[in-house]
Amino acid sequence: MLKVLRNRFEQGCKTSRYPKENVQLLPRYRGRPIIQQDTPSDIVGRCAAACPQDAIDSIAKTIDMGRCVFCGTCARIAGGRFITFTQDFAVAVAEKAHLITQGDIPDLAQHSRQHFKKLFGRSLQLRQVSAAGCNACEADLNVLATPFFDLARFGINFVASPRHADGIVVTGPISRNMKTALLQTYEATPEPRVVIAVGSCTISGGPFRGSPEITEGLDKLLPVDLFIPGCPPHPMSNLHALLNFFK
Ligand code: SF4
Ligand code: SF4
User: How far is the CA of 102 from the centre of ligand 2 (A)?
Assistant: First the structure.
């Protein structure tokens, strides 16, 4: 017992002080993109042609964060002249159209639904549905339960049954085989319920876009309240989204 107590004392508190203090991510992290509108069109065209996700509109000079997998190819080709990625992990939006951006993302707290804040601000129980995800989105949601993030201190928990949940968090490209299970889980969640789309697969099909085996966008099946882009979204993006949308 003494050993355990000594160990706890030596370890100290590992929990992040976010949101009171900001969290600095590693330099290689790619967050909110910034686009230089005065970039010559040949560079823009090369970036758009190289994008594996068809996420760059070379005419409007925008990037669709719902499709982007943040691979960094465009930033490498442009050499800092067209698209650069910041370390800003605040990338979630309440309206899908806001994912198409020149770098500006509306303040999520301003677009959150007030009745959700009132209902779930102090206690939010979520059921996660992996609809054929590769497990990276799921892992970066799971990690929110670890001591560093400690999601439960905000009154937010993942629960085992949709009957005990206030909403669902969906990951993966929603394969044909998972579609029924997803819809049944949604129906089993009591109203009022929230629907959160996590990751490029769920928002747009991600790397599986174009396959007849998937649904290209959760919003084609269910009313989505919150979109968190990324492949996978960083745990800080997930945490920022949950806190700003519900608190
Ligand atoms: S970072 Fe996004 S926009 Fe750029 S090439 Fe990769 S997928 Fe396309
Ligand atoms: S968005 Fe990326 S990380 Fe998430 S399930 Fe799809 S492929 Fe995997």
Answer: 23
What is d(CA 48, CA 73) in angstroms, rounded to the nearest whole number?
10
CA of 32 relative to ligand 2 center, distance in Å: 18
Number of domains the chain is built from: 1
Nearest to 139 by CA among 150, 130, 151, 148: 130
Residue 219 CA to ligand 2 center (angstroms) comes to 17
Tell which atom from ligand 2 comes closest to the C-alpha of 137: 4
The tens digit of pLDDT for each residue in 26-50 reads 999 999 999 999 999 999 999 999 9
Rounded Cα distance, 241 and 107, in Å: 10
pLDDT digits (tens, 9 = 90+) for 192-226: 999 999 999 999 999 999 999 999 999 999 999 99
CATH number at residue 177: 3.40.50.12280
134 ligand 2 Cβ < 6 A: yes
In a domain, 65, yes or no: no
Q: Give the total residue count for the chain.
A: 247
In angstroms, the first-to-last Cα distance of the chain is: 39
Q: For residue 53, which ligand has an atom nearest its CA?
A: 1
Q: How many whole angstroms separate alpha carbon 195 and alpha carbon 238? A: 14
